[in-house]
Amino acid sequence: MRDGYVARWQGREYQASPDGDDIRLYQPEPGEGFEEVRAGRYVRVLPASEIEDLAYVRTTCTWQGQPFIVLGEHDAWLRVEYTGGRWPVAEAMRLEVFDFGVYQGWAPASEVTDLREQRV
Prior knowledge:
By secondary structure, the protein is mainly beta. The chain has 2 domains: 49 residues, no CATH class; 63 residues, no CATH class. The chain is built from 1 helix and 11 strands. Strands 1, 2, 3, 4, 5, 6, 7, 8, 9, 10 and 11 form an 11-stranded antiparallel beta sheet that branches. A hairpin with a 2-residue loop joins strand 6 and strand 7. It is elongated. The protein starts with a strand and ends with a strand.
């Protein structure tokens, strides 16, 4: 499940992070020009002008007939955030109030439908 920036550079897609006029590219293995920032995490900083494409990728789904963003996964569960904007629905689903107007919970992966990635 992806939720974050991705960038295409030299025909390959990387996890990415915009940083002003630069883009940080991340990969799990060593590579030319990549520096290890921690075990299994390597970064390379490039000018944005060298990046072929930059997009935000978000995984969405439907759970109990309501729209959600998938934030993560653990075993057979998905961490989801409700995007329907209706407090009575969030309350009826017993979602946690994460912040004002932000409701999250754990959904059994077997109950989730319409799972797909969207480029924003």
